[in-house]
From TrEMBL, chain A:
The gene is nirB. This is Nitrite reductase large subunit NirB. SUPFAM superfamilies: FAD/NAD(P)-binding domain (SSF51905), Nitrite and sulphite reductase 4Fe-4S domain-like (SSF56014), Nitrite/Sulfite reductase N-terminal domain-like (SSF55124). Residues 7-294 form the FAD/NAD(P)-binding domain. It comes from the Bacteria. It comes from Methylomonas rivi. InterPro entries: BFD-like_2Fe2S-bd_dom, BFD-like_2Fe2S-bd_dom_sf, FAD/NAD-bd_sf, FAD/NAD-binding_dom, FAD/NAD-linked_Rdtase_dimer_sf, NasD-like, NiRdtase/SiRdtase_haem-b_fer, Nit/Sulf_reduc_fer-like_dom_sf. Pathway: Nitrogen metabolism; nitrate reduction (assimilation). Its cofactor is siroheme; [4Fe-4S] cluster; [2Fe-2S] cluster; FAD. Residues 423-469 form the BFD-like [2Fe-2S]-binding domain.
TrEMBL record, chain B:
InterPro entries: NirD, Rieske-like_NirD, Rieske_2Fe-2S_sf. This is Nitrite reductase small subunit NirD. Residues 4-107 form the Rieske-like [2Fe-2S] domain. NCBIfam families: nirD_assim_sml.
Amino acid sequence: MNTKQTLVVIGNGMVGQHFLTKLVETAAKDQFHIVTFCEEPRAAYDRVHLSEYFTGKTAEDLSLVSPGFFAEHGIEIHLGDRAASIDRQQKRVTSANGVVIAYDKLVLATGSYPFVPPVPGHDRAQCLVYRTIEDLEAIKAAAEKSKIGTVVGGGLLGLEAAKALTDLGLETHVVEFAPRLMAVQLDDGGGAMLRQKIQALGVKVHLNKNTSLIDDGEQCLHKMNFADGEVLETDLILFSAGIRPRDDIARACGLEVGPRGGIVIDNQCKTSDPDIYAIGECALWNGQIFGLVAPGYTMARTAAADLAGAEAGFTGADMSTKLKLMGVDVASIGDAHARTQGALVYTYQNGSSEIYKRLVVSQDKKQLLGAVLVGEASGYSTLLQYCLNGIELPENPDSLILPQRHDESVGLGPDALPASAQICSCHDVSKGQVCGAIEAGCTTMGQLKAETKAATGCGGCAALLKSVLDCELIKQGVEVSTDICEHFPHTRQDLYNLIMVEQIKTFDELLDKHGRGLGCEVCKQAVGSILASYWNDYILEKPHIGLQDTNDTYLANMQKDGTYSVVPRVTGGEITPDGLIALGQVAKKYGLYTKITGGQRVDLFGARVEQLPLIWQELIAAGFESGHAYGKSLRTVKSCVGSTWCRFGVDDSVGLAIELENRYKGLRAPHKIKFAVSGCTRECAEAQGKDIGVIATENGWNLYVCGNGGMKPRHADLFATNLDKETLVKYIDRVLIFYVRTAARLQRTSVWMENMEGGLDYLKAVILEDRLGLAEELEQQMQHVIATYQCEWKTTLQDAQKLKRFRHFVNSDQADDNVVFVEERGQVRPANAEERRHFKLIEEAA
Amino acid sequence: MSAWIDVCHIDDLQPDSGVCALVAGRQVAIFYLPRLHAVYAVGNFDPFSEANVLSRGMVGDLGGQPMLASPMYKQHFNLQTGICFEDATVSVPAYPARIENDRVAIQMPE
Ligand SMILES: Cc1cc2nc3c(=O)[nH]c(=O)nc-3n(C[C@H](O)[C@H](O)[C@H](O)COP(=O)(O)OP(=O)(O)OC[C@H]3O[C@@H](n4cnc5c(N)ncnc54)[C@H](O)[C@@H]3O)c2cc1C
Ligand code: SF4
Ligand code: SF4
């Protein structure tokens, strides 16, 4: 017997899904059997970050649904099935596949569709839109056959689509009907600056263009004919001329819709039928459609609360936005066009650095009404908080947009914000809620995000959230200890600076000057690594020996039974038959277990300490050198076979990999570093899973940074495109040394970048634009490391004193009798405890 | 009181680091900490990994107590008592050690 009511949700997009997650958190969850229709072939995904589908994210990465969500909450989802009609008399929904569900309550979350102007020819082949994953697949396919692509519409989405087209390697045009770009958000000055910057990136912008006909082109597939008589030839057309609410199904069942579309809702998100709600981009509130995700989420929360009998209301939403378009920061806040009565406007324009800022303030100069920022939007959070919370402006409001001298800060400290101030608009998290979570014990960004969901939507509020966190922790007297350990009241970065500034050469010297006690394995290894990165001395010099972990001390990797594995360098994974034979011979002679590693080399296991020098003697004679597999240092540069052999290859990935590996081998870092180079975008070397990834394109090399596999995989971010080799190497030099200098202990590049204030953008500014004026110094330091490279095994073998360490006992030539091997699949492996006991018994009996 | 057993010359030791010696059939890890002018000797067998590796661990102090970190899974042992810092129910044997006339000697229970 089922006493539950049925709740049907039409549309499983961003807002529909948010509604479901909110509803199952309320008591209403037990009251309803929930059914949802999802027209798309997959459940909800992150449309806001859709473009990242082109830069490596997969459909799974973009998914907004945690695995097992529907099953866990007993939600019946009809994937790939569109709700076709609603019968309000019978209270039934019928789907395109013929499923009929009787409902008690109904929620419409049908979103919107891209508006395609009814220009003759708009339905020709390769005339596409940009809204779903399927759209992107179609664009990708079409781009492969195209040279020129054109976006119709110069709004926010259009420019994002234009970026996608340039990333796909097309010559890109943007055609806009209005006299400026982003007409909704920007004023003329801001629009002009944006245009200038975007054109500098190679996109051609055509304003005041009204397309009247699309027909056959001469050079290209299409010819676009404009009302002013001009024409433009293009192979691909992307329409991004605005969105229209998907209200057809509501219209057909007689629900009230707006004169220009949109399902009319009240403050509880109810439509003209009290049993039917509408939320997201299909809904029309107070004559307004909200084309952003945050207001949609607020509607979702409102409807869920209303169904659960809780008090909630949707009372409009702030449409401020900040985004990065083709690398250009653009932000628009509140009344950007100064439409408020008596509003005053301040503008700041810096032609040479291409920055445009505009403030709109109230007549009494006390309130911020709106703002436009182009080219530099770091002040966005502060300005938005002024605007939303009605915080009184400083005496000279223009100080908020004028360039600052170093010693001044006009940022609004988190203390100035009231508890009601909204920190995260995607998930509607207030400063009060954040502070509550901190009081309840959250001390890291990770915990705070998990607890409050803040900064897990578009992520725009991450910096603000962090500053609230730090500020609160300090107030609570929680000492935010970043000390490396009890022996030094410093972070790894501080220690690095001390060593650099005071030119300190040994751990003892550093301990005497800045530390206490004897040190421990934590600070010793960290300092050992810094000294090695900075001075690049031989790590087994007497003062440094005690700083090395066993792997570094014995220049090999300790395995579970106390034996070591040996990994000679095989640059780029390229090895001659003679090299392979030599490895085989050594392995055979010393009875080593051999395995191919993930980094395209050969690992030889089961070497006893006393065997290491003998093994290396032979390896070096055969032309091998240390692979640094034991160090926190550059490991491998993996490569695919590339253009030399591969029929798809566009450049010599093996050659570049070998060059890079030889350049950076021996570089000591806070953690291991892995590279890969692929010869074309098919990416067989999996470069996007590496700290440094390089992919060949028709026009040069694309550089990716800060990816990794392992425990917490992370896709690398595209950092710079179409580079020649010289520039590529320069950028890599800088990134690596900047990482070595500023990362925390044992921090991989991915976490380093994610924790960096300003993240990827800041890193780009430092490396590509040299914002800190450090570029030359970073390159020089790399030069020093390269110039002082030595094969640590070669050096060790030449030093009888050093070789003394490579024996198990100082006072005997016996071997460790606890190391016992048995055979498996034709090779040795360490005996397990049981087998070892057995072996001992036999020995004693003998 | 058991006798001092001569083990090796002081030059065989590694400052701020360890070596392993075979003493009366047992594997002993010996550490020399110049800042304390002290040598310490503990069993070389790591009870956590069941491998003879402690001589290859790093040394220093924790809260002022001289300590050794296992190279395998990084547990810490007190160099004076052999007791594990993380789990006081686990310990390694600790042997008295001294330097006399540049020779290292340790005492071992019968
Ligand atoms: C490329 C791109 C970038 C964007 N960037 C941003 C941004 O930076 N910031 C921001 O705030 N917003 C951004 N947006 C807008 C944001 O994605 C939308 O505001 C949000 O997706 C709206 O959610 P929704 O659930 O209302 O609609 P949708 O996410 O479109 O979901 C509606 C779903 O309902 C389905 N559907 C419709 N009718 C039916 C039916 N009859 N039966 C079954 N299913 C049906 C649709 O197929 C769709 O899956 C962007 C949008 C795009 C396309
Ligand atoms: S990435 Fe490209 S060049 Fe390299 S092997 Fe794959 S298909 Fe060939
Ligand atoms: S995945 Fe685990 S078991 Fe495998 S090599 Fe790495 S640490 Fe060892």
